[in-house]
Amino acid sequence: MKLTFVQINRELVRALERLLGRDGVLSSREDLLLYEYDGSVEVARPQCVVFPRSTEDVIGIVRLANEYKIPMVGRGAGTGLSGGALAREGGVLIVFSRMNRILSIDIENRRAVVQPGVVNFELSRAVADARLHFAPDPSSQKACTIGGNVSENAGGPHTLAYGVTTNHVLGMKVVLPTGEVVSMGGAAVDTPGYDLTGLFVGSEGTLALVTEITVKLTPLPEAVKTLLAVFDSVDDATETVVDITARGITPAACEMLDGWTLRAVEAYVHAGFPLDSAAVLLLEVDGLRESVETQATDVAEVCSLHHAREVRVARDAAERDLLWKGRKNAFGAVGRLSPTYYVQDGVIPRTKLPATLRRIDEIGKRNGFEIGNIFHAGDGNLHPIILFDARDPRQFKRAVSTADEIIQHCISVGGSITGEHGVGMEKDRLMPLLFSEAELGFMRRVRDAFNPAGLLNPGKIFPSGKGCGETRIRPLPVAGSVTG
Amino acid sequence: MRAPTKIAGARLTDIVGEQNSSFDPGELAAYEIGGLTPSGMARPGSAEEVAGLVRMAAAERLAVIPCGARTKLKIGLAPERYDLAIDMTRLDRVAAYDPGDLTLGVEAGCGLTKLQSVLAEHRQFLPLAVPWFRRTTVGGTIATGVDTPLRQRFGMARDYILGMEFVNGEGVAAKSGGRVVKNVTGYDLHKLMIGALGTLGIMTKINFRTFPLPLESRAFVARFEDSKGAFELCDRVAESALAPLTMEIFSPQVSGLFSSDVAARMEPKPLDPGFLSPKHWAFTSGFAGNEAVLSRYERDMTGMAERCGAAGVTVLAQEQIAAALGRKREFIPIALESSPATTILKMGVLPRKMNEILARAGRFADEAGMRWAAMARGVGVIYFALLPEALDENARSRAATIAEQMMAAVAALDGHATIPWCPCDWKSSLPVCGRPREDFPQMAKLKTLFDPNRILAPGRFVGGL
Asked: Tag placement on chain B: N or C end, fewer CB within 10 Å?
């Protein structure tokens, strides 16, 4: 007898409840509404939400999803910015928030094994007494999970010097969408065989559900100096970044906020950004005491050479934290100003920064949008923020085409469509701008080799052939939310 | 193994031209791998020609093996079949170099010395201080996954490769990543190519992040009566705020290897007599920075070495470093030429377990009456070289026993071991690929996907992939 959709749903929910307990499953409409969103502008509602506590639970969920032939999607804290953790085609949303234990910490060998639901910052906090930390530091690090970081290969301001998530993951235990459990990599380096860990990190939850992660821990620097360089023109700020890179100076972080963005942030966070400036660079140098002083002087000199009107050095940890609070809460600040905003994540060669920023300004003006810029300048990873009102369908359409124009420019100068947010369901239609049909076809076959029934996180990364009109925009981001 | 299939010469020359192909047995002998010599060789001049060759091979079921300067063909298992050698050395262009962006795109057949000299013009470099440095190509370096002393600071190639173009086993040109320093667009297929011995695809172009050359560097050597003190110093440095460029520990036997004629041929610069001593274990570390930083390293390392019971310390100045780094870099080729049957175990272990593992390996070798020498890297990698006096059954059997003992010992401590180098005839009876791994079926899946006709270096990789 063929079961109806509703019957399947009811039966599946009952089976999931038997597996996980009643408090491990959500299926009422009002509960599901909360899981329609992540940090992006996308919306998609799951059929039910489950909270596994162990790898065995995950295996059980995967088996049921296969039995009922419904999609399954992994999710950490839901702070992602590309719809990666949304159930685009419905199905079971597997939320890892209860798999949040740090399983082991090995201070001597600088390793930790964690469950995917461990919050990024919590791991760093747990090892801070040993003067270690987990280096990837997305702006959402106080909320986002390491499982999510692994799925998206998350970056952050300090990845300029320390690398992104993939550089810090040594091994994983995963549940394949077929229900098999596989351990890859390990605590020791140079595991023999193909680099499966390297393939799975950043695969946006389309190849496997990760249930354990072995990471490297990194020593905290002995000394840190944070500088705020203030400019009267955006060009001077971007030229400074180009010059710092060309001189071979690698700061630990090099972030830029343009005048519009810093004024929005200042009104909200009071970080001390000068309201009348055109742009600021937030620069950090770290390392041995003996080198930090010199590096700071070198960086300050380059800033002055490019007409910085002021280079301020944070006097103490409190001032440093405040400057970083301004940077990391910027998206929350922007949320106070506009009903909706659309954040892009294009990457460009760093030498192209000045011309690209001018181009973004021109594109915004031509399309009638205010575009703010706050981004990882040292990496060339842009985050233009387009403010618009999603209630106006024409404005929404124009916002999307404006964003596309920016991305196309990034590609035309040798860049890429996403530096750290992932392709997800937001940028899948842009993939053909970078990859040929044959190249995408080959990547699809890699996905299908591990995800043969296509039940794990369907509708992500690869263009579905649907137009951008499918994208729905949520009303208003919560002010103060931590994203970016 | 089977005899190579005869290749239709006209088809080969259609693709690469007569002057870039060969069927001459004399010339082909240089492409021998594991006792097999191919029946043809082609030297493609473009990625399109590589794709054309692979499509032809796929259609005719010819087994192809890509190679560069052929310095590391002894790594890996003997191929099941081998019909056509694809010599990549004509693809040797620096395709794109943007010094201002610190990024580089280079064809796989480009020699490392040529590449580093291009970078040096802009005071930049790639941290690929790999064995056979003066001859090897970029592609060979990446395909074999050999490591470098500089990994202590810069990580492995996977950490600074930004993207890649390659041809898969169906002759389809593919790419992943890009040439920007941060990029999460699509799957990181290029990571699979690193160390895969050409069994998944043939790399045609590799994009790197480059690094500024350090202004001033020095090296520190501390000598110890036993290994314990040397490893303790290694642990102390790792725990400290210091971030050296290199950190290696050498067993006393390495001193003899490094001062031999073989070593002088590999790295002609004379070695400072203070570098290694035949009576001591040595901790060696290179570091860079301004004068204040260099003094800090010297001061801190000296203090730590004394507390660890060092018998003596030496600081090598900038001009003495090249010879020392050169020998560290060339440890493997020097060891290979120091015995007729050198067998090198590579062990990946947790850094704090290195002393225990190495002590056991030394004991097993001593008990078997086998000469040995070892180099350990601070990140947790040990190269343990067995140096038998003769290439005979007695030596093989003793080497096999030691290898099995070490495989078990390393596995018990969450590590792993392989035998990248040993006499060709021993490969079938030594645990060359290490112990079977749980993720092997997933690797086999990838091999089938990338190379459905099983024509890319078949049988060369872990588990006969």
From this structure: N
Q: State the best of B152, B182, B419 to mutate against chain A, taking most chain A CBs within 10 Å.
A: B182
Residue of B nearest to A150 (CA): B184
Question: What's residue A7's pLDDT?
Answer: 66
Q: Kindly report the average pLDDT of chain A as a whole number.
A: 92
Q: Which residues pair with A216 in a beta bridge?
A: A111
Domains: count for chain B? 3
Across the interface, of A193, A421, A449, the residue whose CB is closest to B445 is A449
pLDDT of residue A468: 42
Angle of helix A437-450 relative to helix B440-450, nearest 10 degrees, comes to 150
Nearest CA in chain A to B145: A190
* Angle between helix A234-246 and A289-305 (nearest 10): 130
Residue ranges making up the domain that contains B386: 339-429
CB pairs under 8 A between A and B: 227
- Of A134, A26, A145, which Cα lies nearest the Cα of A85? A145
pLDDT over 50 at B77, yes or no: yes
Residue pLDDT, tens place only, B235-263:
999 999 999 999 999 999 999 999 998 89
Question: Which residues does chain B have within 8 Å of residue A438's beta carbon, measured at their own beta carbons?
Answer: 172-174
pLDDT at B1: 53
Q: Which residues does chain A have within 8 Å of residue B183's beta carbon, measured at their own beta carbons?
A: 347, 416, 418-419
Co-location of B208 and B244 in the same domain: no
CATH topology of domain A223-326: Alpha-Beta Plaits (3.30.70)
Q: Does A412 touch chain B (CB under 8 A)?
A: no
Is there a single domain that holds both residue B24 and residue B54? yes
pLDDT of residue A465: 65
Look up the ipTM and state it: 0.97
Evaluate if residue A286 carries a pLDDT over 90: yes
Same domain assignment for residues B178 and B314: no
- Closest partner residue to A155 (CB to CB) among B182, B185, B289 is B182
Separation of alpha carbons A84 and A94, rounded Å = 13
User: Are residues B149 and B259 located together in one domain of the fold?
Assistant: no
Q: Are B203 and B278 in contact (CB under 8 A)?
A: no
CATH number, position B371: 3.30.70.600
Whether A191 has its CB under 8 Å from any CB of chain B: the answer is yes
Q: Is B353 in the same domain as B370?
A: yes
Q: List the CATH number of the domain containing B21.
A: 3.30.465.10
Q: What is the pLDDT of residue B275?
A: 86
Q: Quick one: B201 and B231 in the same domain?
A: no
Residues 435-454 of A with CB under 8 A from B: 435, 438-439, 442-443, 445-447, 449-450
Supply φ then ψ for residue B135, to 5 degrees. -115, -30
Question: Residues B16, B158: one domain?
Answer: yes
Q: Quick one: B228 and B182 in the same domain?
A: no
Instruction: Among A266-270, A358-362, B190-194, name the one with the lowest average pLDDT.
Output: A266-270
Domain boundaries, chain A: 101-219, 223-326
For the domain covering A101-219, report its CATH number.
3.30.465.10
Last residue of a domain, one of B280, B313, B330: B330
Helices (H), B17-149: 25-28, 47-60, 112-120, 138-144
Which residues in chain A have their CB less than 8 angstroms from residue B241's CB? 219, 221-222, 287-288
Give mean pLDDT, residues A62-89: 96
Global confidence as pTM = 0.95
List residues bridging with B22 in a β-sheet: B41
Rounded alpha-carbon distances, angstroms, from residue B257 to A357, B250, B328, B367: 57, 11, 11, 21
* Closest to B38 (Cα-Cα) out of B67, B11, B18: B67
